Amino acid sequence: MQPTVEDVARAAGVSRQTVSNVLNAPERVRPETRERVEAAIAQLGYRPNRVAQSLRASSSRMIGYRIEPVHPFAVGSIHDRLLHALADAGRAEDHHLLLYTADDLDGEIAGALALHRAGAVDGFVLYGLHAGDPRPPALLHHGIPFAAFGRTGHDEGHPWVDVDNAAGTAAATRHLVEVGHRRIAFAGYPRGGDVGERRAEGWRATLEACGLPPGPDLRGEDSLATGARLAAELLDDPEPPTAVVAATDTLAAGLLRGARDRGARLAVVGFDDTPTAAALDLSSVRQPIEAVGHAMVRALLNPAPPDGPPAASLLPPELIVRGSSCPP
């Protein structure tokens, strides 16, 4: 069998993309790395497939994205905004989105490999990364370009964009302190998830910086019913909080409903600033999703030089104050 690019990459101890750069853009590779790859090519007797190279040189002008199903209990989703932002940013770069579905992360990886091998896409955008996420190492292994929304904790090898979730809940907590609240609770996702824990940390650290003890820290699935249940738990506390920072607008809307059902007053700030937040007069932390979409497309289509670090962007969110975060 004829040796492949993967064989050369393995023998030289480099990525598949580095071998491709040596063959097609050698000026982008450090001299010592280029010499190592060229030695492996000579040793293995590798011969590039010029037909395949010419086909690959003709860009598909498509960006792959796995579209996720809408959460059945959510009152709003940032997916629509993200898709619009990606499509708008891609259009500015003469690219378009190719959407596909998958049942799970393994299916997403398999779909990405199939689309890339078929030449249907130039690269991918990954959504919602988390610790131990299998997608980045799999795509890196196969030399498939991608940019990620979110972080895994091991993000040095690929471009990523994320929202500073801790800064968002910190701003929400600081606002509630400034209007007079002294016992402020948190309502969030089940423990362990990266995004949820960063949002909890922003709340906790801000209360500590203000010299205030943290209020109750309650968790549950992201649904209106959960928010209402958590509101009942908080209000049954012998020293009930006067305010809550919620990890999502869905939980925040449930908290407002639960307090209303009990005839109680509870200041609430959500996260994501979905259309529901405006409809409910809910204060919320707005994610800069449009900026996220444009930053990911730029990082994907204009990669850093091989010897430089991949693009990394941590974007600040914005607190939108409405009537729900009233003084105690």
Automatic annotation (TrEMBL):
<dbReference type="GO" id="GO:0003677">
    <property type="term" value="F:DNA binding"/>
</dbReference>
<keyword id="KW-0804">Transcription</keyword>
<feature type="domain" description="HTH lacI-type">
    <location>
        <begin position="3"/>
        <end position="57"/>
    </location>
</feature>
<keyword id="KW-0238">DNA-binding</keyword>
<dbReference type="InterPro" id="IPR028082">
    <property type="entry name" value="Peripla_BP_I"/>
</dbReference>
<dbReference type="InterPro" id="IPR046335">
    <property type="entry name" value="LacI/GalR-like_sensor"/>
</dbReference>
<dbReference type="InterPro" id="IPR000843">
    <property type="entry name" value="HTH_LacI"/>
</dbReference>
<keyword id="KW-0805">Transcription regulation</keyword>
<dbReference type="Pfam" id="PF00356">
    <property type="entry name" value="LacI"/>
</dbReference>
<dbReference type="Pfam" id="PF13377">
    <property type="entry name" value="Peripla_BP_3"/>
</dbReference>
<protein>
    <submittedName>
        <fullName>LacI family DNA-binding transcriptional regulator</fullName>
    </submittedName>
</protein>
<dbReference type="InterPro" id="IPR010982">
    <property type="entry name" value="Lambda_DNA-bd_dom_sf"/>
</dbReference>
